[in-house]
Design goal:
With 114 residues, the protein is an alpha+beta fold. The protein has five helices and three strands, in the order H-H-E-H-H-E-E-H.
Length: 114
């Protein structure tokens, strides 16, 4: 028989899930990090390639990538002196597409095809 969870246990688990979601969204909540995610949609890239595409130095880009890696959004591997990053959660791209739809809908006052 499955143990019955108390209301407090359910609330705690729910709060932990919401906190985890908020942490992931916080990791995405920067224009540079969103750009990095979009770049990694196509293929794995080294930090040097990604640095060339933004107006930031390698240290700043590396810090952004570290935050994304800690959130589980990207993964990395070392090859010689280079570190390559890849998108670990491509399902987030669907969420970004939904955000674009919502932004477009702001002007037409409708959302999500309604």
């Amino acid at each position: 028989m499955k143990p019955v969870m108390t209301q407090a246990q359910t609330h705690t688990q729910s709060q932990e899930r919401l906190n985890s979601r908020a942490a992931l969204l916080k990791a995405l909540a920067h224009p540079t990090r969103l750009w990095l995610v979009e770049q990694l949609e196509q293929q794995e890239r080294c930090v040097c390639e990604l640095t060339d595409g933004v107006d930031a130095d390698i240290s700043t880009v590396s810090k952004h990538l570290l935050l994304l890696r800690q959130a589980g959004i990207v993964a990395s591997r070392r090859q010689g002196k280079q570190i390559y990053y890849r998108l670990e959660t491509p399902c987030l791209l669907g969420m970004l597409t939904c955000i674009e739809t919502a932004l477009e809908a702001q002007t037409s006052k409708s959302c999500c095809g309604r």
